[in-house]
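Worked example 4.2. Below are the chains of a multi-component assembly; read each line carefully before continuing.
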Amino acid sequence: MKKQNTFIVATAVTAAVIAAFWLLLAAPGYTGNEINMTRGVTPQSMVHYQLHMTILWICVVIGVIVFSAMFVSIVLHRKSKGHEPAKFTHSTKAEIAWTVVPVLILVIMAVPATRALINMEVAPETEMTIKITGFQWRWKYEYVEDEVQLISSLHPDSNAARRLQSGTDPATVENYLLEVDRPLVLPVETKIKFIITSDDVIHSWWVPALGWKRDAIPGFINEAWTEILEPGVYRGQCAELCGKDHGFMPIVLNVLPKADYQRWVQDQQREMAHQEADVKRLWSREELMTLGENVYATQCATCHQADGQGLAPGFPALAGSGVATGPLQDHIEVVLHGREGTAMQAWGEMLSDADIAAALTYTRNAFGNDTGDVVQPQAIARIKNG
Amino acid sequence: MSIEHTQGHEHESHAAHDEDHDHKPTGFMNRWLFTTNHKDIGTLYLVFALLMFFIGGAMAMVIRAELFMPGLQLVEPDFFNQMTTMHALIMVFGAVMPAWVGFANWMIPLMIGAPDMALPRMNNWSFWILPFAFAMLLSTLLMDSGGPAAGWTLYPPLSLQGGQSFAFVVFAVHMMGISSIMGSINVIATILNMRAPGMTLLKMPLFVWTWLITAFLLIAVMPVLAGAVTMLLTDHFFGTSFFNAAGGGDPVMFQHIFWFFGHPEVYIMILPAFGVVSEIIPTFARKPLFGYTAMVYATASIAFLSFIVWAHHMFTVGMPLTGELYFMYATMLIAVPTGVKVFNWVSTMWQGSMTFETPMLFAIGFVVLFTIGGLSGLMLAITAADLQYHDTYFVVAHFHYVLVPGSVFALMAGAYYWLPKWTGHMYSEKWGKIHFWLSAISVNILFFPQHYLGLAGMPRRIPDYSTQFADFNMISSIGGFIFGASQLVFVGVIVHCVYKSRQAATGRVWEGAKGLEWTLPSPPPYHSFNTPPVIDSTTVAHAGEAH
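Applying the procedure described above to all two chains together yields the following structure tokens:
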């Protein structure tokens, strides 16, 4: 019996040690997986990485000392080796020592920790401002100085593959769940201020390469800043539980050299001017239905589903619904201002007038909702401007 | 002194009637439903907690199965969120907390030389509320609007998007709170009034001390939680705007209130674990607990600090710099008394004469793995680094290290330690050890890779993930399945010990055991101490050292 126990213990310990070493050393190399925090590409992220490593090593050293003392004791001071128990019960000197020494270690840790925090929270003069608005389950980015805005959602490929039992192997989808339809484009080596808020529930905007995350909270405006040192594509995700599609609202930054960025801004401004002119003209039913189908698929189908049947209980069907087949005024009201206490957004500020008009036209004529209504972008513009 | 005098008097009058009372009530209803006996209520609590441990564990299995591979294979994201939320609520309020109350019920009267708990009828009620509270909570999973899906923290505005079933969740939380508060009042009344003459405060076993402090924490913070969820209730159903920004409310205020409850809450789950481990290590090291007084002061310091660190859960909500600095420094300070505890445990083992029965194995596993969780907690306290760690799997790994191989291992250590005392039979040492090694290895396979996942950038509470996180999730899930299955061994050992074991336990049970509970036969008489026991260095562990 005794021998058997020793054998079990020895086998188990060996297995545990091998497993631990495999996890520490072999597994990352074998799988190509990252196991540590990224150094990132901003002054803050590098400071945070350094801080993380410093504290990690202090903790590892403390752990090794404590566990060594313990295992020495376990090996040497056992009854089976005939060790007699000592009589000592306390030592005020020892208690003072292991109170004072940890306090000193904490003070040493607090110095870089305080410096890093001040560096993060005391923003320098910034050169441009991006307003980030989180909503279920997308991000809206507004370039405050350049008057450009865009909505960034999960890329359609990922969005199709992530359905329950979609039959698509995520490995075949490029950047599965970390790709968006329209990334946030930013210039390199520019001090950028972010102002972050939310339209519905709390979200959290996190790109690990920037070195921080910050909550997007309705009714609050949070601030953060960054200066990205290298052009490239950086990916992140919403980090605060925000409902059923919390896992499906990624963030992608496309960081460009300054000249390329300027060109991109001009393209966007031209595009927006073009859209503005578009609102004023009269649209055909076909045009509205085509655009509407597109808008519905990217914006509305997450909740109301592609076939308009909704997803009980939180997300009502549009097919044959009182709103989508009832008075047009009420329908427009719901779409523009949302419905409080539900996941229905106020889309008025999120989408262009043409998009809203098209989506309304589409939902009032698709899924067997044959109302025959055609909503013109002009009408939406008139209602929005009172 | 006057308290002890009246106590002695009470005992005498009790003793006069004892011949009539010292038999168990007959009939199932009388014995269990109407019971006022601390041991029977303790057993009810422990059985209930074990049941909840498996229900919450089954939910964890659903979570780990969905996370086994990228892509959604088993459940819709909304149901996944219901699982994570319910798993946490069930494990915190249904498994760990009631299990500790069960231990308190069983052991505190035995350890301080009392015949029973101070308030036996309230004791009955505080248990029997729980099955109704959890039936109500679990029933929400069957309702149209589903179970709560906003995380156990119930942050508004998300929690307010829930349907009608949310009211059931709020009332269930209210009932759990009432049960906890009544249990705590009972613990405090028992410890302060029912100690045998001569059992001064600084002679009490450390488990009694940690529970006394835990009970004060519970009474302080459960009403805070009740207030927070009541405000959610009125925001949801009665049109108030406590947390609704559009109505002039403040969603961040909820987080402050919640974590003012929530941080002491995590110490409510761990302090009794400190107590149990401080009983077990001296027994199997055959050496008195090192630094008993320091351990008591460290426990009290941890309890005090737990009230002033709550916003370290909220470093990303956008606090002023001074606020962040304060909460960082205060949180780092917790490492000091916690370190004192770990150093004292190691010093207790040092130069001892150790044997490694199952309770000792779980206690040593606790010290090692809880320390790992404590060190990652220290990392999380560093605000600037927490801006990366926050809401990732690094946090998930941290709090599971302190709760599973922390609290839960201590519960198992305690269960093995006192099972022979409770039942009068020895459990199977062989199967106990198998249970320990399976659990200790699989729990690390389950939670250690989650550190890597978090550092590499995987947020928590997501039902699906990018393919770069696939391998460690699969390893973690495999560990989870093994850990889950291993707990069936635990049930097997308990059932065997209670019904089948033929090896009778002595009163002392363990060679090195000290304390009043070991002076009684195993199992102890139905009314524990009919006459006050003698308190001296032969009966209690800390008789000679208090200073």
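Take a moment to check your reading of the output against the notes. The mean pLDDT of chain A is 87. The CA atoms of residues 295 and 359 of chain A lie 6 Å apart.
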